[in-house]
Amino acid sequence: MSPQLIGLVAHAGKPRAGELVSILATEFRARGVEVLLEKETAELIGNADGLPANELGGKCTLLVVLGGDGTILRLVHDLQDRMCPVFGINIGSLGFLTCLNSSAIHEAVESICAKKFVLSERTLLTVTVEREGEVYSQHTGLNDAVISRGELSRLIKLDTWIGSEELTQYNADGLIISTPTGSTAYSLSAGGPVLLPESGVFVITPICPHVLTNRSVIVADQSQITVKPIAGQTNVVLMVDGQEPVRMQEGDIIKIRKSPHSLPLAMLREMSFSEVLRQKLKWSGSAV
Description:
Helix content: 10-25%
CATH architecture of the largest domain: Sandwich
CATH superfamily of the largest domain: Probable inorganic polyphosphate/atp-NAD kinase, domain 2
CATH class of the largest domain: Mainly Beta
Largest sheet: 6 strands, antiparallel
Strand order of the largest sheet: 7-6-17-14-9-10
Number of strands: 17
Order of helices and strands: EHEHHEHEEHEEEEEEHEEEEEEH
Strand content: 35-45%
Structural class: alpha+beta
Distance between the termini: 44 Å
Oligomer: single chain
């Protein structure tokens, strides 16, 4: 991959975002690399020539994202089917999906220009809501699909199938269907396992299950997972990667499968996924 056309995307609400965008644009252009800006990112530095994210994804060979994991998740939704390699620079909090912190902004430019990174192909979810036999809405997710009662902390009953085989009826606060990338997010907090990015599976994790034998189930990512809230339940909500909630109606069916697209996520050559886990999860190996 040749980084001849770089797209810059920043979380506009983060401190120093505009300053860092200016530094990156200046340094890339000083090295003869053309730079395009996402629309809201361009506005940070008084530039009116920004492009919508999905148009940026169709033009650029690499997107450099200034923010945290949430910024990358929003970008995945905005890109739609125009997935483009993403190099994340963390100016957020945890930053599982980012390569470097903002303090290493010059190192980031050098790594990109010298191609000192590898691309990890991250599985995406396609989440479809069917209503009265028709497709009501369709969503792309990098982390997970969560079905719950939304702001209401109440049990929800969900009939769940793997392919054509019935799995169980979950009676829980909710259900998380996660990719390997999302296994270190909400699913992990709910007691799910950590999955390696290349593991080729999804994990189904109930949230606070009423039946204590209901535990996380790992299924092949070639499987279609079907979830149907049982009749009579109100305020059932679907959220994909924590984005805009979809309010379910009685009889709606949720189908989750592997997307035909994937997200090429940049990782530094010297930073394996195991090293990322040790750093981000504070796995020191000690007993304290």
